[in-house]
């Protein structure tokens, strides 16, 4: 069975290839209004081809197309270029190397296949083509559809969650194998275990791996291995069979089998089919091996490698112990040389004490002499820095006399200035004018009257004198010539 690996998200196809092709989505792709542009303005070829490609890709979904392969060419880059045809038409196809590595079989001319592809336009040549995502042989569509539906449902339940995968034991003493006793995969697994780990005990739980009842027998064998874990002593379980077609591996795409693997108390390795074959059991198992032989290699470490590793560790341990012994011996010699008689130690400490006392006395004497010299220097500097108070007092008296004279002169000058300004203000004072017999006339709005023509008979006015005011009424108005 040729399916993508477990880590790849598999899209679920909708309907059979015939139903998808009969929907004629190309007509609906161009039914929507095109991008607005002037019909009279010529379009560059690249612009036109790009618009057509965008219309095709946006209008046609990813779909399954069935046909026969012809004109197949594999480029040096690993990409496949071919035509997919039927009795009435053909279309150019390209399948890039990353996609081609996952299909599990080599395409050949004349094969009838079903391609999951995206319709597009190769702009460099203006050719309509299909970008093929995956290929499958014609006739497996229903099985593949059921596989995808079951995988999606179990995955949504968390049955394939990597966080729930159990670690494999590093050194298992007993391994259980669920497979057919007549299967070639069993011989491969036993041969590999005998070569890599002859000390490991093997318990076989027989079950059919192909046929109508194979899924039930595999489920029952896994449940039996889990129930007899304590009595049989198995620490790990391998579920395996050799490669085959999609129909041959269908027993390992059973929901009950997947749930039994997930519920098994033993870690489970799935080694079903060849490297490109993937089943539901692979997703449910704790580890997936590409082949039964690889499952055996994954289950048990090689005894020769373990012995070589133990020998390396033993040699490394001996070298470490030898180096440690040498370091400790050298350290002991150093401590031996430092070891002294207590009397010698006390004499050395006594001499050291006397030496420190002499140094301390000399330090005190030197420090005292230095302080005395410093005090004498500071006293001399203090004498030199003492102020002469008599000269300073005479200088202060002179400054006081000068300050008094300057104050008297300044006051006299300011008094003269004040008198001059007062006389000027007196001449400008309106009260002085009023004292000479003049008066100020204002109307009832408080405005000064300068022209008799601005007054009217019977109008009230106010007359201001040097002392006081008087209210009056206009009897008659005369101009200066009257």
From TrEMBL:
Upper classification of the organism: Bacteria, Pseudomonadati, Pseudomonadota, Betaproteobacteria, Rhodocyclales
HAMAP family to which the protein is assigned, alphabetical: Exonuc_7_L
EC number, UniProt record: 3.1.11.6
Protein name: Exodeoxyribonuclease 7 large subunit
Reactions catalysed according to its record: Exonucleolytic cleavage in either 5'- to 3'- or 3'- to 5'-direction to yield nucleoside 5'-phosphates
Domain of life: Bacteria
Domain OB-fold nucleic acid binding: 44-135
Cleaved signal peptide residues: none
Coiled-coil residue windows: none
Key words of the record: Cytoplasm, Exonuclease, Hydrolase, Nuclease
Subcellular location: Cytoplasm
Subunit (UniProt): Heterooligomer composed of large and small subunits.
Chain spans, region Disordered: 1-25
Family the entry assigns: Belongs to the XseA family.
Ranges for domain Exonuclease VII large subunit C-terminal: 159-472
Function: Bidirectionally degrades single-stranded DNA into large acid-insoluble oligonucleotides, which are then degraded further into small acid-soluble oligonucleotides.
GO cellular component terms given for this protein: cytoplasm; exodeoxyribonuclease VII complex
UniProt keyword Metal-binding, yes or no: no
One Gene Ontology MF term: exodeoxyribonuclease VII activity
Biological process annotations from GO: DNA catabolic process
